[in-house]
Amino acid sequence: MAEGWWTYVVIIVAGFLATDIWRWLGVLIGHRLNEDSEALYWVRAVATSLVMAVTAKLIVFPTGTLANSPLWLRLAAAGIGFAVFLGTGKRVAVGVLVPIAILIAGLLFLQP
Amino acid sequence: MSSPRGNLGWFFTGMRGIFSLPAFILMTSYVGFSAFALESGLTRGEAVAMTLGIWALPAQMILIGTMLGNAHIAASFIAVTLSSIRMMPMVASIMPEMRTKKTPLPVLLFVSHFIAITSWVFASRHLRDVPRDHRVAFFAGFGMTLTLTNTLIVGVSYGVVSQFPPVIAGALFMLTPVYFISSIWASAVQPVVKIAFVIGIVAGPTLALIVPGFDVLVAGIGGGTVAYLIDRNRRRKLLAKSEAA
């Protein structure tokens, strides 16, 4: 790790600027888009696909403690949870609590 | 103001979003981040500056990773900026819904800093229920409160919470993806969003095996384009049918 003030330079340049230039570009692009234009349909599709790719990767390739849990348990928790969510009127609380309950039950059951 | 509630009122309404499931989930993630920062040798001040200045958890983790490896600042910049490209379509997709014709550009540039994945989902769900004139104020109320609260959490929990017990840590980690899955699906109004949702979920992990490092970008641009084309085809057929009838 580098020392003192240099770390803050790294945070500002390689952190703040490296991230916010994309936000600012997004504003400039979004500023020109009209609601319900064809281009906005495309941008929405790209944004959604991107976010869901990140999301699915969190389940399939987790970091930290979950990395030691079996993939089938994580997939089953997410899959069954989503099915229950769809079948019970699409309540977000259901979509969150059911998979978490399945995951915790599985983790406790598999504990050595 | 023609509306009974002014911008300040809507700003406070946005602030109240801090008492919500997604905000709670993100706070637990940031407690985890402060433990990770301590473990990695960052000072409290550096962890706080990173949270406030970057405000994107994956980018923060990547920056720490490159700093641990004593990477050159240019290498850190490239690694972080590649992971942050996703911000561009995310921000662009909510701008048309958020701004009015009169919203000054500097205001939007400032507010964009508070857009990250959680606040993007929040905006996709709730902006449509807010009168257009007050959407920027509403979002700023939520986004700024969420960012500042989590910055505070990182500062306070630094050195206090070392680690959660494994089962709790696992459950907290899992909260983020399952929340995104159900809330993004629940807030999807246009079919194109649902098509992109399914393609993204399949493409993300698959492409991680095929083009590691660029998986999210390819899944986003490629998968999003495929979803758009499928949806455009669907809309054209629908239009042809209604014209024939």
TrEMBL record, chain A:
It comes from the Bacteria. The chain crosses the membrane at residues 6-29, 41-59, 71-87, 92-110. The keyword Transmembrane helix applies. It holds the Pfam family AzlD. Keywords: Membrane, Transmembrane, Transmembrane helix. The keyword Methyltransferase does not apply. InterPro entries: Brnchd-chn_aa_trnsp_AzlD. Signal peptide: none annotated. This is Branched-chain amino acid transport. It comes from Neorhizobium huautlense.
From TrEMBL, chain B:
InterPro entries: Brnchd-chn_aa_trnsp_permease. The chain crosses the membrane at residues 107-124, 136-160, 167-185, 197-230. Pfam families: AzlC (PF03591). The keyword RNA-binding does not apply. Keywords: Membrane, Transmembrane, Transmembrane helix. This is Branched-subunit amino acid permease. It comes from Neorhizobium huautlense. The lineage of its organism: Bacteria, Pseudomonadati, Pseudomonadota, Alphaproteobacteria, Hyphomicrobiales.
